[in-house]
Amino acid sequence: MHGPALSGWLLMVLCGVAGAYCLLRTRGITGEERRAARAEAVMGFGMAAMAVPAALLAPPAWAWAVYAVLFGGAALRTLWFLGRGGHHLQHHLHHLVGSLAMVYMAVAMAPGGGRGGHAGHGAAASAGGIPLLTGVLLVYYAFYVLTSAGRLIPVAATAGAPGGGGSRGTQPELTLACRLTMGIAMFAMLLTL
Length: 193
What we know:
Layout (H helix, E strand, L loop, with lengths): L4 H21 L5 H20 L12 H22 L4 H21 L11 H6 L5 H27 L13 H20 L2
Helix pairs in contact: 1-2, 1-7, 2-4, 2-7, 3-4, 6-7
């Protein structure tokens, strides 16, 4: 993760908290929801690890390959669940886009990868602007954040109503807020490319 150290710290904390919440959420749910929560926890912790400011811990050169393999595996797993069908198709597609975006960022941030590697993101911006793929991902995540925020507002307004809690101890507004937080973090991370 490149850019000011404060933004890196904030992204690291937010993504770590979101990942921890998703991991805790797996205890109260089963089936498809549990798999989604696990995938979101992996995404949150992976984003937190990628957002660690370089001033604190400069990742070894091989760390970016580990990220690429980890999220490439997550993308393959999501493709497998997409092939099985089900009623969570839209959510699986979002996980697929997220996993592939993480692979893309890992490759772009690797030393010698992308357009100049870990130390060269400033050079990438001056050497032709934002790549098309980064732009498409930024548009996707901007749209995702705006639609997620729109879904969160009505849920938060009715959360105090009788029966407003989620099933088996989960709270849908916290789950939406967690997903919104990770969407905002992904957008911010993509901006640094």
